[in-house]
Amino acid sequence: MDVTETIAQALKAEGVEYLIGFPSNPLFDQDAAEAVGIRQIVVRQERTGVHMVDAIGRLTSGEGIAAFACQHGPGTENAIGAVAQAYGESAPLVAIPAGYDERKTDVEPKFNSLLNYQHVTQSAEQLTDTDAVDETMRRAFSNGKNGRPGPALVEVPKDVFHQDVEEFDYKPATTSTPGPDPADISEAAEILLEADRPVVFAGQGVHYAQGWDALLELAETLEVPVGTSLNGKSAFPEDHPLSLGAGSKSEPGQLAHFLREADVIFGVGCSFTQTAYGITVPDDNTVIHSTLDPVDIDKDVEADHSVVGDARLVLESLVDEIETRLDGDSPGRFDDVAAEIDEVREDWLAEWRPKLTSEEEPINPYRIIHELDGIVDKEDCIVTHDAGNPRDFLAPFFEVTEPLSYIGWGKTTQLGYGLGLIMGAKLLHPEKLCINVWGDGAIGMTGLDFETATREDIPILSIYLNNREMASYDTPFYGDFAEVAEALGGYGERIEDPDDVAPALKRGIEKTREGTPTLLEFMTAKETDLSRPDLE
Q1: What is the pTM of this model?
Q2: Where are the alpha helices (H) located in 432-492, listed in sequence order?
């Protein structure tokens, strides 16, 4: 066997089902991954492939890591932004780019992945020793899955791929789940039980820990409202009476209200990173911060108490401790809290209903989100969005009820991210309706990879909000993207009448059920209002 074949066998042993990327890389060129039963998918642009792999890692809670491969030089240059995105979002994946031949690795000019990816990966190694394939690949998977998840990179010089391997006996990487200190749990439980107006804020760590049931049990035992980060959206059912929705640049009124009034905020599975796309944590309360990565504690938000550990184990331990202390009693505030949430939520929605039901032309984008929210089966869909307005319109007004039914993100994001994410989601869940919402900038960045969806039989529903504007910059408009979708082998439709929004969405959903990737191009108004309740 050569190095290429042994890497493919290592991927198979690790449970990898998809190798996604772009030739020229021997893993593709020799069909090495396909030879061991791994589906190979070639994309139009490298970063779309990384985004697909990113989604698979997140939607399997890190248990189903996929792999990315590309050519040396330009391929690695194109992919680095998407790997940086995965690093920022703690998305587990393994990247195996080709490198220059060993004799050229340090010869200028070059783009050396080993050097340039170190700051955007959990680990970055160059494989040059044919006797070290097994340990190198095992380290990559271990670093990608354990602790804070993220991308791991193994660069393989082109000539090394073809060198022979004498012995190869691969054993998959092990994983561990660290639990919390019981003393920290005891103190956290005491603080929460003594609080008058506690709030739980859940992040993406709840998804990775699969701590959804434990989060729900804590909320109902403690009778406490729960909000989430955008990454954590869907960790708590948003149709639950105790749900506050998700924090972002645009967010529900009830979340801001309860954060403003909280005397204790318990953040679990979150970093509390302060960005324009997250919550503002008031400084006049007690903060309990629970995270798997201790580096997050006191990074941006000063914590009064911390609990380090896996989110599910932390939540389960807290529930046990609180139930013991309550000894069959209850806090007795469920009805009051639920009623207050409902009242504030209804007041907030009343302000926004004119936009959500607008009859204006061009179509108000909030009307599209509102119709979408009412049409789709929440138990059978996965939704994501792109940066900018698509995110800001969707996040507060699209209610999710099932874990991992929403792919959000919490920091800066490349335009065009959502297409790859939703294609990865559809690969993983072909039975579900998978939707991405994007705008002019995003479709310009990665729109041609809609052809990947048609070529690879990935029937997504892509909702394009066309307001003839990129990043608030007016642009001349040429062409018809619905026609482009048709030319690329999918179904495309342009919608200009607000009364046709719901029928068009239903037609698009039906087309995806028939197996056809679909793009609905809605001609929209230049909406600028966002739901950003003031926390001051």
Answers
A1: 0.97
A2: 440-446, 450-455, 481-487
State which residues of the chain have pLDDT below 50. Answer: 535-536
> What was the pLDDT predicted at 478?
65
For residue 7, the domain's CATH number is 3.40.50.970
**Does residue 400 sit in the same domain as residue 500?**
yes
Which tokens in the block code for residue 474?
């007016």
* β-bridge partners, 521: 464, 494
Which of 298, 318, 342 corresponds to the end of one domain? 342
- Asked if 412 and 490 sit in the same domain, the reply is yes
**Amino acid sitting at position 133:** V
Angle at 236 between CA 369 and CA 520, to 5 degrees: 20
Measured at the alpha carbon of residue 190, what is the angle toward residues 186 and 195, in degrees to the nearest 5? 150
Report the pLDDT value the prediction gives residue 536, as an integer from 0 to 100: 39
pLDDT of residue 477: 65
Q: Which alpha helices (DSSP H) does 385-493 contain, by range?
A: 389-397, 417-428, 440-446, 450-455, 481-487
Containing structural domain, residue 483: 357-523
How high is the pLDDT of residue 535?
45
How does the average pLDDT of the chain come out, rounded? 95
Residue 238 lies in a domain: yes
In a domain, 491, yes or no: yes
- The residues pairing with 265 across neighbouring beta strands, listed in sequence order, are 199, 287
Q: How far apart are CA 396 and CA 378, in angstroms?
A: 15
The three-point CA angle 381-382-388 to 5° equals 135
H-state helical runs in 42-97: 46-59, 74-88
DSSP 236: S
The HSE-up count of residue 3 (CA atoms within 13 Å, CB side) is 25
Domain count, the chain: 3
Q: Do 148 and 203 lie in a common domain?
A: no
Confidence (pLDDT) at 476: 67
